[in-house]
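Morning, I've got a small favour to ask if you have a moment. It would help a lot if you went through both lines with me. Thanks so much in advance, here it is.

***
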Amino acid sequence: MQALVMAGGKGTRMGFCGVEKPMIEVGGIYTIERVINALKSAKNINKILVSVSPETPDTKRYMQEIDIDTVDTSGDDYVEDLHTAFKILDGEYILTCPSDIPLLRPFTVDAFVDYFNNNPNDSMTAIIEETSVINTGITPSYDFELDGAKWVLSGMNIMHREKTLSDETLDCSYFMTDCVDLAINMNTQYEIGIARSYFI
């Protein structure tokens, strides 16, 4: 399966820190590089594309240095950026992943794709038990109830490429997990500190 890493956002919740969010170091390694390494080591991923924008020029330069393909997007609108990247890719289904989940492991990526392959649908979203997120020290900004429990979106999805491009309504299913590597999504300085604490 092909993978798209979204790395063109403005990161406004992060506040000014002089560094693009994908290029923030966690455990001495850039956040986006940790995500790329997990995808490269996953047995189910055969191509990686990174979406960049005028907001992330350093990220684009670094991706070129480590020989990872990029696509230029506006960085202003998630759906528009997604469509721009999906026109470059050619897989039937695309795994989309944020660039700010530095704990991501190849095992989790493969488990997610394997589950999808055994339960195909137009799209699938990885969701984390709310208690697993809270136990890391993070307070979720958004949660929802499903099957009598509360869940938090991870930002990792699998989507039918052509149906997405044609703006069809996608039937969605869920990959329910308590994996901590999907629970820590760095949107604030506090969450950066939590992510870094796992590498001390």
About this structure: The mean pLDDT is 94.
